[in-house]
Automatic annotation (TrEMBL):
PANTHER family: HTH-TYPE TRANSCRIPTIONAL REGULATOR RUTR (PTHR30055), HTH-TYPE TRANSCRIPTIONAL REPRESSOR RV1474C (PTHR30055:SF229). One of its GO terms (molecular function) is transcription cis-regulatory region binding. InterPro entries: DNA-bd_HTH_TetR-type_CS, Homeodomain-like_sf, HTH-type_TetR-like_transc_reg, HTH_TetR, Tet_transcr_reg_TetR-rel_C_sf. Keywords: DNA-binding. It holds the Pfam family TetR_N. This is TetR family transcriptional regulator. It comes from the Bacteria. Residues 10-70 form the HTH tetR-type domain. Residues 33-52 bind DNA. Gene3D superfamilies: Tetracycline Repressor, domain 2 (1.10.357.10).
Length: 187
């Protein structure tokens, strides 16, 4: 029997995550049935659940991956850039928005999920604060407001943007709003 390489295993796992992202974005967590996950990934339930213990583990892995991608953008370009990406990326099953909305809903309704998710949420907050601290040392952000407050402000704006997009409201005129948000934290 031929051996499957680590790269092939990683590629298959990513294929499952990509298909699951589409399924969760289209149908939500509850509507993402095993049958729909099979259709979306093009794989059998056995193949899917060989890589992930259950649907919850699959969703958490997807949300973790998106949180890591967002933290990478924050570290390089800031939280406002994550928000800009939400505006410029099509709001479809490939964007972060679908996963982010399901995370928000589950945080509100599922204490067990909230507990498991707290470490990932903290990672995004740490990335935001670390970037703001680097910018503060460079004299690029306001020095009359503590970095922790600036980070919390940006996180609240992000949540507001996510809510705005979730309601299906127009995002066409939000670029200048994000310019204002960015200017509010800069020196």
């Amino acid at each position: 029997m031929p051996r499957v390489s680590t790269d092939q295993l990683a590629a298959r796992r990513q294929e499952i995550l990509d298909g699951a992202r589409t399924c969760f974005a289209r149908h939500g967590y509850e509507g993402a049935t095993v049958r729909r996950l099979e259709q979306s990934t093009g794989l059998s339930r056995g193949a899917i659940f060989h890589y992930f213990r259950d649907k919850d583990a699959l969703f958490l892995a997807l949300a973790e991956q998106d949180a890591e991608r967002m933290a990478d953008v924050v570290a390089a370009d800031g939280l406002v850039q994550v928000m800009r990406n939400l505006l410029t990326d099509p709001v479809d099953e490939r964007s972060w928005l679908g996963t982010r909305l399901e995370v928000s809903r589950r945080l509100r309704t599922e204490p067990e999920f909230r507990e498991r998710w707290s470490a990932h949420s903290a990672a995004l907050t740490r990335a935001t604060r670390a970037r703001l601290e680097r910018q503060a040392r460079a004299g690029a952000v306001r020095d009359d407001v503590p970095v922790a407050v600036l980070a919390q402000y940006l996180e609240l704006v992000m949540e507001g943007l996510v809510s705005h997009l979730a309601m299906g409201l127009s995002a066409d005129d939000l670029g200048p709003v994000l310019d204002l948000v960015e200017a509010a934290v800069r020196r």
